[in-house]
Amino acid sequence: MELFEGKKYWTATYERDEQFLTPDITDRFDIIVAGGGMSGLLSSYELARQGYKVLLLEKNRIGEGSTSLNTGLIQYMSDIGLYDLSKKVGESKASEFYEKSAAALDYIEKISKEIYKEIALDTEVKRSRSIFVASEKKDADSLKKEYTIQKKHGFNVSLFNKDELETKYGLIGEKGLETTGDLEINPYKFVMGVAKTSVKKYGLEIWEGAELKSYKEYKSKDKTFLKVRIVARKISENGSNSFPIEVNMTVPKLILATGYNLLPSIKKEIKKSKLVKTFVGVTQKLKSGIFEKVRYAMMWESKTPYNYFRKSAEDRLVIGGRDVSTLKMDEKIRKKQVEILIEKIEKCAPYLGNNLKTPFSYSAIFGESTDEIPFIGPSEKFSNVFVTAGFGGNGTVYAAMAAKMASDYFIKKIYDKKSITRIGR
Ligand SMILES: Cc1cc2nc3c(=O)[nH]c(=O)nc-3n(C[C@H](O)[C@H](O)[C@H](O)COP(=O)(O)OP(=O)(O)OC[C@H]3O[C@@H](n4cnc5c(N)ncnc54)[C@H](O)[C@@H]3O)c2cc1C
To answer: What pLDDT score does 288 carry?
Structure first.
C-alpha cells in the first residue's frame, strides 16, 4: 500500500548518513520487533534499555513510513475528548487513558534529552500549548464540557471567549480551549535519534530491508517460541546485495509495529480499524517575529472537516486536515485540498497574512479506529506477540504509551485484559 503522494518535509530536514548493517543472523535474540517507525523504535528502545537483546526488522528504511508524514503535534488530548471518552468507557478508564497520554509526553521529552546528551542531535522537542478552536457557536458548548471535565481531573486548561481568543492568539472563533504541557517534535529526527542512541547505548540491532513475512508458534520443553520467516537483503559495508534471501529464525517474543500495513494475521484480530486519506502542506519560512505578536500554540479547529497548524523550528507552518475516505492518490485533488486548508488557516489566523505558499505538500494514508481508541496489547491468538497499532491522530503518543505497555507485558507480565486498547475488541 502506497502511504503517500507528493513531497515530504521532515526527511528534508535531516541528512541521513548512518548505515545499519545486517546483523549476525542467529537465534540469539530475546525479542524481534517488526517495523522501524515511531512505534517499533520506541518499543525497541525501551526493551533494549531494560537489558533485552532486541532485533528490529524494517522492510524499507527506518522512519520513512507514516512517521515521516506526521505533522508533529504531540498532545495529551486525543481525537476523542475526555468528555466523550468518559461517556463511552466510563470516567475512570477515560481519565486513566488521559493520564497515560500525559505520561507518554514526559517520556518522549526525557528520551529527546537523552538523545541530545548521547549523540548531540536536537530533535526539536519543545513544550508548547495547544488551542482548540470552536469556530461555530454550536461547537462552543462541547469545548465548555471538555474544559470542565479536564479541570476536574487536574489538567491545566483554560477556556477563552471570542475576544480573548483574538487578543491572546490572534485567532477568529467562538471559543477556545487551551491545553498546556503539549510538545512539538521533528518526528524524523526523533526516530533517527532513538535508533542511533539505542544502537550505541543499549545494543539494539537494526536490519533494514528485512520484511517479516509470517510467524507461527511452537512449544519446546513447556516454553512457547515463535518461528519467524523473514525475506531480506543483506547489507554490508560495501553496499547491499540485491538478491533477497529467506531467513527463518526462532525467538521467544515478537512485537508487531508495522504501522497501517497490518500483517494479515493481525488484520483479522483488529476489526475496528479504517483508513482515510489526509492532506498536509508545509509553507515557506515565515518572517521571524510573526508569531511573537500572539501567544504561539498549536491550533486545532474542531469543525468537520477539521484543520490544524503548528510552527516548525524553521518558522514554517505545518498545516493539515480535510480527511477524505477515497484512498486513491491524486495530485490534483491534493493541490486543491491544500489550497482550501491555506484559505481556512488564513481566515482563522489573519495575522499570518494571505501569502502562504506550500513548497512541500502531500496526501497521506491515515489509520483510524472506529471507536477513536488505539490498538495496543497482546494478540488474542498468540500470547507472545504484542501489537502496537496506534491508529488515530495521536499516533506518536500511542507509540510511546505502547512501548511502556509492551515492556510491562513482557517483563512484568502485566496487561489489563479489560484495557480499552485491547486488540480484539
Ligand atoms: C499526515 C499524518 C499526520 C500525522 N500527524 C500526527 C501528529 O501530529 N501527532 C501524532 O501523534 N501522530 C500523528 N500522526 C500519526 C503518526 O504519524 C503515526 O501514528 C505514527 O507515526 C505511526 O508510527 P508507526 O511506527 O506505527 O508506523 P510507521 O511510521 O508507518 O512505521 C511502520 C514501519 O513498519 C515497516 N513495515 C511494515 N510492514 C513490515 C513488515 N512486515 N516487516 C518489517 N517492516 C515492516 C514500514 O516500512 C514502516 O517503516 C500522523 C499521521 C499522518 C499520516
So the answer is: 77
Low-confidence ranges of the chain (pLDDT < 70): 240, 304-305
In this structure, which residue's CA is closest to atom 18 in ligand 1?
A: 395
Ligand 1: which atom is nearest the Cα of residue 67? 21
Contacts of residue 98, defined as CB under 8 A and 6 or more positions apart, other chains included, come to 76, 77, 78, 82, 85, 150, 153, 155
Q: 65 CA distance to ligand 1 centroid (A)?
A: 5
The answer, yes or no, to whether any atom of ligand 1 lies below 6 A from the CB of 70, is yes
One domain for residues 204 and 346? no
Sign of CA dihedral 248, 58, 196, 236: positive
Ligand 1 atom at shortest distance from the alpha carbon of 230: 42
pLDDT digits (tens, 9 = 90+) for 276-293: 999 999 999 998 788 877
Question: Rounded mean pLDDT of the chain?
Answer: 94
Q: What is the pLDDT of residue 282?
A: 97
Task: Supply the range of the domain harboring residue 313.
Answer: 127-184+273-369
Whole-number pLDDT of residue 291: 83
At which of 353, 369, 385 does a domain end? 369
pTM summary value: 0.97
Using the mean position of ligand 1's atoms as its centre, give its distance from the Cα of residue 216 in Å.
25
